[in-house]
Amino acid sequence: MFIQNELDVEREKVTLLHQQDSQQTELLREHSAQLFELLRQQQATAIGSTCTRRPETLKIDISKYKGADEDSLLRWFVELDDVIRARHIVDEEMQIALAQSNLAGRAKTWALGLKLHDPYVFGSLEVFKSLLGQTFEPPRANLGLALNSYESSEVNVTYTRTFSTYVTLPVA
């Protein structure tokens, strides 16, 4: 009988320990859930405060530059710069890609031909514009000879002065 009493006492201890263990486990679960919720709220607050809104962009179309004689390269450059600013494009490669995607005809063939031989030929938008201008703008040395033949009329003299002023303006 003594052994039976000892065994019953030990069973009660085990049952009590098991109940205490279950209570502690439940307390740990509740505490973990509270900590998890607190952490989730802190992360949500941190993300909300550190995210900067991307500026809204405008969808502005740009005409295709074909490299034809009637196309105005300077006007196309102004359109291109306006679109780059409106769309907030700061990456140089993206600016060049936008410019190339708005070429057509001879100009597109020219650009693709250069890229075929050297994929990195256009290192910056300024290089792209410079090469495009050298290829498709009329040579400035011949411009003076061509304009001299028209000096007989007063209208053409005024036109020459006005045109020369625009040719010498720096491109931004």
From TrEMBL:
This is Retrotransposon gag domain-containing protein. It comes from Hyaloperonospora arabidopsidis (strain Emoy2) (Downy mildew agent). It comes from the Eukaryota.
